[in-house]
Amino acid sequence: MRMKCLITGLAAAGGVSAAVAVVATSYSTEPVLPTLAEAGVWEPAPLTPPRFVEGPSYRLARTRPGSAPDFRPPFLPAVVRNDAPLTAIEPPLITWSRKMARGETLDAVLAEAGLAATDRAEIALAIGAEYDLRRLRPGHAITVISTTDGSPRNVTLVVEEGIRIEALFGEQLATRVVAPEPEIVTLAGETRIETSIFGALDDAGIPARFAVDLAQMLGGTVDFRRELSGGETLRLLWREARVANKAVRQPEISFAALDLGDALYEIAWPEDGTGKATIYLDGEVLRVFSQPVEGARLTSVFGRRKHPVFGNVRMHTGVDFAAARGTPVRATAPGSIAFIGWRGGYGRVVEIAHGADKLTRYAHLSAVPEGLAEGQRVSAGDTIGRIGATGTATGPNLHYEVRVDGRPTDPLSDDRLAEAAGRATPDTAALTRLRAARARLEEQLASVIAANPNERL
User: What is the pTM for the complete model shown?
Assistant: First the structure.
């Protein structure tokens, strides 16, 4: 009953609303504007139909029966993982370098480089362990590499012969010694003797120390005071070790030819380091002689002299050769070991017997080869000891004596010992060495003349 009444009410309300709308329309008196009337009847112009142009036709490819479409994912580049740690960035470094002047100390130079006192002390201890700082000389070079805050990274001291002592700063301070590899240069020269061999060599710019080598080799065979009257010709071939075009060691003579006019003496030194030289007279083997210390400097000759330690004048019974500690000492002639041991002021000594009446003594030795024993046979050039300063000596040197019938004889003038060494050399090999040495000398002299056409040798 209620539903029926509700529907009847809604219908009556709808009728009333429609009646009101009709009445309102019929009673409106407002006129319509002409422009609105025109807009109400406007229609757009008809569209022009499109033109079709002939062109290439495309046909969709059909999938072959039984084949499935490819739904693979698109290609993606592989991701490479780098687990290496990033390189540490080194701080910028500053290099400071200069040569030492007279009277300067290492500490003063390092202070000028801006290093702290503690760093200077560490560097001095490190370098001093490898090089005696009391030997510092003008011209030695110091190079300091440090960071901008003054922390040292590398300190280098360059001393004699281009040797570098480096102090390296890292987790720990380390020191190393670096010796440059020298270039071996062969040189030749010719000179005319007017007063002495020493003066002739010096005037020609040839190392004057070669006069000592010639005196050793020819002493007792050539009387330099009587047989050199002037005008004799001397030609030499030698080797020099150089670093940066500067000689770093004593030069080593290879060949010498002394023309006296009526006799030609030639000496060929070996290149194998044995120091055993062959002496020729007019192209024939005269004898073989081995220097006791190769490349050493003769510092004292045979005869009376003022003793370097005691200060009084006494007889010097041999000759002294100065060389670095540990330099090999060689037998000058074949023989047998007669004594090894200590003899007072001679220090450690090795004595070699050459027959029944001749003996050589090698004194102030620092060491003797292991296995060397009394009674053992040795040849000329065999190592029988090392340079030292044992006994009464002011520094490392070899005191070399020749004794005949127990009496000391001048090693540079007596040739009887050298004759003992000459009997063991095969003539064929010796003559082959002589021809090769002559050829090298001529070749080197020719190159000198070609390089200096206006220079007279």
Answer: 0.51
